Amino acid sequence: MGNSFDILKKRIMQDGKCYEGGILKVDSFINHQLDPDLMYEIGHEFSKRFAGSGVNKIMTIEASGIAPAIMMGHEMHLPVVFAKKKKPKTMSSMLTTTVHSFTKDRDYTVCISADFLSPDDRIVVIDDFMAYGNASRGLIDLASQAGARIVGFGFIIEKVFQHGGDQLRNDGYRVESLARVLSLDNCQITLE
């Protein structure tokens, strides 16, 4: 299928929609209706980028990060754990944090079972978007509560102009973004 960057950039330009307020809608192929071939390529690319990093677990937050995380987990033969936005009745020992959603403009209490994160875990966090970094900060908090170490972050799309990725990099985290959106000014998508 070629280089996943090119495939992804082409799909963003072809099928992505821009809305006022810095919103990029990619729900026809990434986060509502999924393109399995594209998700496979994304998982493969993240696997290549994080090969040799010592990762032993992949973490994401529901819902849109699950598909690329699963594809990477399949490629690397690693378990995938995801933070839930609602506490299941069956979860007893849990870690919790609060995350603000930029797109939905609301706070979520997210949780993850303490049974699935440990100090032995070296985690790569995978998600669909990097905007302001709110979800990433929540996942950093959950990993920290468990004593796990985050070795890197992988984002399908980073909205560079919202600076969340820069903040993670400044804090010493490795950040890999498959497509970087420089601007959505005047509802024009400008990619790096």
Describe this structure in words.
It is found in: Cytoplasm. The protein is of the alpha/beta class. It has helices spanning 4-15, 36-50, 66-76, 134-146, 164-170; strands at 17-19, 23-25, 57-61, 80-83, 94-101, 106-113, 122-130, 149-159, 175-183, 190-191. Strand 5 (94-101) and strand 6 (106-113) form a beta hairpin. Helix 2 (36-50) packs across helix 3 (66-76). The radius of gyration is 16 Å and the shape is globular. The two termini are 21 Å apart. The model has no long low-confidence stretch (mean pLDDT 87).
β-sheet strand percentage: 25-35%
Number of domains: 1
Apparent shape: globular
CATH-assigned fold name: Rossmann fold
Major sheet: 6 strands, mixed
Q: What letter string, H or E per element, gives the SSE order?
A: HEEHEHEEEEHEHEE
Q: Which radius of gyration do the C-alpha atoms yield? A: 16 Å
Instruction: Give average pLDDT, whole number.
Output: 87
Catalytic activity: XMP + diphosphate = xanthine + 5-phospho-alpha-D-ribose 1-diphosphate
EC number: 2.4.2.22
InterPro entries: PRTase-like, PRTase_dom, Pur/Pyrimidine_PRTase, Xanthine_PRibTrfase
Subunit structure: Homodimer.
